[in-house]
Structure formats: C-alpha cells, structure tokens
Amino acid sequence: MIKSLSRTLAIILAFIAGYLMPELHVYSWLFKWLLIIMLFITFLGIQYHRLKPTWTHCWMVLANIVIGFLAWGGSYLFLGAGDVAESAFFTGIMPTATASPVIMGLLGGSVEFVLTALLLCNGVICALLPMVLPAVIGQEGWGIYASVAGNIVQVMLLPLILSIIVRHYYPKAIHVTKKLKNFSFGMWVVILVLIAANASNDIASRADLSAEILWVLGGLSLIICAINFWIGYLIGGNRYGAECSQSLGQKNTTLAIYLALTYSGPIAALGPTFYVLWHNLWNAWQLFRASERERRLRAEKD
Question: What is the pTM of this model?
C-alpha cells in the first residue's frame, strides 16, 4: 500500500513544494525541455504502425471543441463577459497535453491511441484557434498561429523525430521506455513543482485579486475538468475509456496559460492554472489505482 501511494504523494508534495517556493518560477523555462526529454523517452517505445485515427478520435476532438464553447457561453451567460468567461474558454478549448502519452504509459494503457489523439486534437484545435479567438476576446488572433505551430513543433515533433532516428540506428532502444519509467515520472514531478511555483508567484504578485474571483475560477476549472474526464470515458467506452478520458481531460495548460496571458490577461490565465492542479490530482489517484493493481497481480503470482 505504501509503495502504491508513493506516486500519489509525490504529485501532491510537488504542488505543495512549488506553492511554498514561488521563487522557483525563474526556472519555469526548464519544464519545456524536461517535457521534451520525457516525450523522447516515451516515443522510443511507440509502435508507430498502430497510430491509426479512428471515429472515436474524431468524436473526441469534436467534444473538445464543444466543451470549450459551452464553457465560454455558459460563463458569459451567467457570469457576464470579461476575464472569467475568457478564462473558461481557454480552459475548455485547449487540446490534449503533450505529457498525456507519458501518463498513459505510466497507467499501462495504449500510448499509441493517446499519441494519435494528441496529434489530431492539437492539429485541429491549433488550426481553429486563429479563427475563433477574435470572436471570443474581441481582438485579432491570427498572430498566434505561428506561435502555436512553433510550440507544437518544438515540444512534440522534435522528440518524435529524434526518437525515430535513434530507433533507426539502434532498434533495441524500443525497450528503453519501460526501463526509464521511474525516471520519466521523476522529471514530471519536477515539472509540477515549477508549474506550482509559477502559479504561486503569479497569485502573490496581484494584490487586486479577490478571494471570490479565485473561488469562481477554481470552481469553473474543476467543473470543466470533471466534465472532460467523464465525457472521455463515455466516448471511449469499454475498450478505450481510460485513453479517451486522459486525452480529453489532460489539457495543454502551458499553451492555455500562454495564450490567455498574451491575448486576454492574468486573471484569464488563472483558470488553466487551477486546471493544472485538478487534472494532476486526478492523475495521482489513477496512478495510485494502477500501482495497486500491479501490486495485487504480483501478490497473486507469488
């Protein structure tokens, strides 16, 4: 039981450590490179012939778009226009996180299915954003296209291409992913510390933020998070429930925070920041359950 709880506790402690050490925000630039290394390790073990888009992937992308607009429309209708509604939009519309294949690998699911979802969802959403952002925030959004494309190429395609090259010259590298599973998780914990430190510094530096706004933004992002994971399970069904849930629920919050800060404001960026906490707490619970299953299977074999 203690071993099963270790990853869950590690994620929770990472958030606490980051919150208590906001000065670490100056190292936030590191988490992008740590993520690239994590993805490189994950991609080494991918069975590329299994990367096949299905109708399930298409329904998931459609759900991602619908949830984003419903989050914005509902907030606009009940809470009015402004930062809160825009925060809900950025939280809901963001595509699958680049780290989702890593987490799915730790959970023992189909990394190939999640990677396909990652490529498809990011491609569609990033192509759509320049056209819909002007309507949401009331300003031109075409300038973000190059930034979004550049972010995806650097964070996702760079480790993918490098892994293909390494696999070509050293085929046995396909087995590295399982051997470095704990190493990948350790890097993910460091990333969470840096994200929490950045959020803590951001909140502390804004004296104009009221407790009411924080509760509203935190509550909205929690609702959106729960809906995403739940709808994902419904779409995936018995076969790909976990994979679809992870692909729809784990968001590219780094991109969301960047876009919110660039085209809206710091308050709008707090929704995706809270989302980081919610989806990683759920990941922590899932990792605990996965560890428990592994422990019981080992016990049965012994």
Answer: 0.76
